[in-house]
Amino acid sequence: MKTSLFFSAKTDTLSWLTLHNFASGVAACQQAKELRPHPAFGFISAPGAAGFMGTGWWQALIRAVQEQSGYACPHILDCGADPGYALFAASQGQKLIVLEAPSPVFESVNEVYERLGGHVFSMRPPSFDLISTLSGV
Question: Mind listing the pLDDT tens digit for each residue in 105-118?
């Protein structure tokens, strides 16, 4: 399995924040911008979010956070073990996903993402969960 340039250049040294809502995302971006010009973090959806919220919801949430905060960062959609959600996400332009599926299924989906310049994580990377909003801190 080859590693995409997008993954190796931008995501292998990041800290991940599990994002559940708009307010937490904007607050995290604003705090990070105050600390340093190029914060080294990205967002990851809740486990299995592709199945219960969908790709469109995730991408709309990320767009809204980016527009409000003025900060764009990498983001991962967790597809659980479902290759259907993973392939739909690819068709919608999602570049980074988690897919915890058996090896033959994982490899097939990974080939699609490699062709599209994306990356498939075989397991969820460690993340800090932004359960409550940071805006009240």
Answer: 999 999 999 999 99
Q: State pLDDT tens for residues 50-87.
A: 999 999 999 999 999 999 998 888 999 999 999 999 99
Stated pTM of the model: 0.85
Q: Give residue 121's identity as a one-letter amino acid code.
A: F
Task: Please provide the size of the chain in residues.
Answer: 137
Residue 37 in tokens: 């010009």
Q: Please spell the DSSP secondary structure of 95-136, one letter per residue.
A: -EEE----HHHHHHHHHHHHHTT-EEESSPPPEEE--S-STT
Look at residues 90, 136, 79 and name the one whose alpha carbon lies nearest to residue 112.
90
What is the per-residue pLDDT for 48? 97
CB neighbourhood size of 136 (10 A) = 7
Asked if 16 and 131 count as a contact pair (C-beta separation under 8 A), the reply is no
Task: Give Rg (Cα) of the chain.
Answer: 14
Distance, C-alpha 46 to centroid of its chain:
9
128: tokens are 């800090």
Q: What are the tokens at 35? A: 């600390």
